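Input record (Table S2, row 448):
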Amino acid sequence: MTLAPCSIAIIGAGPAGCYLADALGRKLASARIDIFDRLPTPFGLVRGGVAPDHPGTKNIARQFERTLAKDGVRFLGNVDIGKDISVAEIKQAYDIVVLASGALVDRALDIPGDTLDHVYGSGAFVSWYNGIPDGRDLSPHLSGESVAIIGNGNVALDLARLLAKTADELATSDLCAHARDVFSAAAIRDIWLIGRRGPLDANFTTAELAEFGQLTRVHPIVDPAQLPLAVPTEMPDEQRKIAEKNLDLLRDYANRTPTAEKSIRLHFVFFAAPAAIHGSCGAETLELERTYIERGRIVLTGERWAIPANTVITAIGYRSREIPGLPFDAVRGTIGHEQGRVAPRVYTVGWCKRGPQGVVPANRADALAVAELILEDLNSGDRTITEPAKPGRLLIDALLTERKVQVVDFAGWQRINAAEIAAGTRAGRPREKLTRIDELIATAQVQS
Ligand code: NAP
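Output record (NAP complex):
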């Protein structure tokens, strides 16, 4: 059976959207794929989430650029689906619609004091230092001596590492200029990493955990009494290997003695659930409650104590943004779907489907699976060569023009990219990001 030329809209130009465009482009040679992003820039978390001092993780952007540059694929940045174009209009225009809009909203900590000043979600904080326009004006308070980071995942490690690094250690990063200024003026002496479970339950990857042993001014502190004697043999192999390496690192940290040049103490605190944040003019202390784990469940003991915390950052996961006109799973904080199918000819992929889990390449397998699903449905007989194709980009382009939306296309992104790299080269860094919507659009529109 021959398939008609197919118009496809992918909402979100992050890793999941780009991997999916690549997979669909290979499988449906005649497909016309439009990838929308609410930001003027593509690549989602690769630009806005990955730590600025981990440039290797961002190399995947080159592959995504090749995808966006392919015949039949268009990038439409600065178009907010649900606002500039409704979901009904997108469905009317395209044969296939795929939500790949990620998970950007911080999960709420939901304890007394969590709305005090100087309490931030990691999503907002990371957007701020990575120069995402929404987070640009956060201006976080870092002039106190003590910062508490809640959560035991890799985002918590990213935050602790960036706060602890010296300006020299950040010199080759693409940390934004406004964040460099705040970091270099910070007066931090103590960083507390708070896990409500034990050291073997932490979601730390070994390479990220190991970095703390190498940093110029960090003295990692671990209470040896919190470390188990061994990793349980019943743990699945893959998980056990990581847990053993992490346990070795934590033992090494527990044995270290402080030295004069190690001016920042990094406290790993396990079995501690956040109970309340106190302060009269913003956060001052974080109250914790001792826990133990019983058959995987967290049990609170009633034993409470407080640590100083002039700034509190939660790194406890994210939810997706609800898009008007689409089902939403309020419990999981994802688009509502059945194994990737949202509605007839509407699909979802990536973090807005799976929740905020997994590293960038994990989205590839997900994208391949969703591409297969789409092909399966297209081949199921109700969408053959005899069916007239939907208007696709013709309709959408007309609406965008009528509504005066300033679309940034792939050439516009290339101009932004070149300008950022040139500014970075002048400053001896990989790139100096443009962080305001109007600057990004103006740069995208400059004709050479
Ligand atoms: P994560 O790995 O799911 O960690 C979230 C942490 O928050 C967990 O320790 C969780 O504890 C804790 N938590 C959740 N709710 C809490 C609450 N109410 N109070 C206290 N603690 C709470 O998520 P993430 O760190 O945001 O990372 C997201 C994904 O991105 C992960 O797959 C991560 O590996 C990936 N990532 C990778 C890198 C890298 O490879 N370098 C860097 C950044 C992110 P429980 O276990 O008790 O729920």
